[in-house]
Amino acid sequence: MSRADNIAYAPRGLCREEAARYIGVGSTKFDEMVKDGRMPKPKRVDGRTVWDRIALDAAFTDLPDDGGNVLDRLLSRRNRAA
C-alpha cells in the first residue's frame, strides 16, 4: 500500500515554461534573459532540460530595481534637503 505525500513543496527543477512563469515573463523573454546571462543556464537531467529554482531566485534578486518605490524616493529627497 502506497502512502500519499502530505507535504506540499515547490519542485526544485523547472521546465522552460515553468521557469519563465516562475519569474513572471513569457518563454521568449526568458530565452533572451538566459542568452544574455540575466538568468542561469539550465541543467541536463538525462534527456531533460531543467532550471534550478534556487538559481532562478538568485538571478532574479540580482536584476536591477525599477528605481525604487515612491516612499524611498520621497524620503531620499527629504534627507538631501535637510
Account of the protein in words:
The chain is an alpha+beta fold. The chain has a 3-stranded antiparallel sheet. Helix 1 crosses helix 2. The mean pLDDT is 87.
Which descriptors would you attach to this protein?
single chain, 82 residues, alpha+beta, 3-stranded antiparallel β-sheet, 4 helices
Overall body shape: elongated
| Spans of at least 5 consecutive residues with low confidence | none
> What is the terminal-to-terminal distance?
71 Å
Give helix % range.
40-55%
Measured by DSSP, the beta-strand proportion falls in: 5-15%
What is the H/E order? EHHEEHH
User: Biggest sheet, in brief?
Assistant: 3 strands, antiparallel
Integer count of domains: 1
Which structural class fits the helix and strand makeup? alpha+beta
Order of strands, widest sheet: 1-3-2
Radius of gyration: 19 Å
Blueprint (SSEs and pairs):
Blueprint: E1 13-14, H1 16-23, H2 27-35, E2 43-45, E3 48-52, H3 53-62, H4 70-81
Antiparallel strand pairs: 1-3, 2-3
Helix pairs in contact: 1-2
Task: Please provide a brief summary of the model.
The protein is of the alpha+beta class and 82 residues long.
